[in-house]
Amino acid sequence: MRVEIWSEIACPWCGLGSHRLDRAVERFEHGEEVEVIHRSFPLSDGFPAGSTISVREALLRRYGLAGARLEASTRQIEAMAEQEGLSPYRVLDNQVGNTRLAHEFLAHASAEGKNRVAWNAIFRAYFGQARPVFDLDDLLGLADEIGLEREKTRRVLTEGRFGQQVQDDMESAQRLGATGTPYIVVDGRYALPGAQDTDTLLSIMRQVWDETHPTVLVADNDATICGPDGCTVPADHA
């Protein structure tokens, strides 16, 4: 089974949604047969490259959120994350910037076989440690942490080798009906917008598994070889 999740690095619901998906896979009876693939859906690439602003200022500019409304909405996410084992989870007291280069870094890491490792690391750095993840030096530090070759990563990012891959990821999500993040597609059958809770994700995975892996009932040794429900294959059949 393949589960794809489209995310924006600086989206707090995406970090929480990724965590919930991991927990659902851990609880799933066939979790070892689930392939989780993270894909890019950059929403914060409209910020000027090379600089950051506070999340408070960004939410005021983009959504008009300020004061009590801002505190309530963001602190709620932080509290939910803490209840689900993500602590600390810094949303409001953080910085945000252009995420395009970070998405290219994640695409490079995915090509090197480190899709989940890289996405988990970048969420942990950004929300767990309030570390910047926007410029080349930030990302080279992450490359060291997850075992990517530093100089190769530098060349890849400097040359923009994965810029088109990031764009393709975003466009594929839009074709599937995504209008925001996170956006989860289970085995190409069910699309789930938003940070669905763990129980919902687990239920959908079980449903898809049952639909794609029908139960086969095997007759016991004393069963009639041929009967009203059909005939079994003879033991000496070629």
Number of helices, where a helix is a run of at least 4 consecutive DSSP H or I residues: 9
The biggest sheet, with number of strands, parallel, antiparallel or mixed sense and barrel status, is:
4 strands, mixed
Write down the overall mean pLDDT.
Answer: 91
Task: List SSEs in N-to-C order.
Answer: EHEEHHEHHHHHEEHEE
The rounded distance between the terminal residues' Cα atoms is: 33 Å
Number of strands: 8
Helix/sheet category = alpha+beta
Summary tags:
9 helices; alpha+beta; about 240 residues; four-stranded mixed β-sheet; two-stranded antiparallel sheet; 8 strands
Description of the molecule:
This protein is 50% helix and 13% strand. By secondary structure, it is of the alpha+beta class. Strands 2-1-5-6 form a four-stranded mixed β-sheet, with helices on both faces. The longest helix has 17 residues. 33% of the residues are buried.
Architecture blueprint of SSEs:
Layout (H helix, E strand, L loop, with lengths): L1 E6 L4 H16 L7 E6 L11 E3 H9 L3 H17 L11 E3 L2 H12 L3 H15 L6 H11 L3 H10 L3 H13 L7 E4 L3 E4 L4 H15 L13 E2 L2 E2 L7
Outline of the structure:
With 238 residues, the chain is an alpha+beta fold.
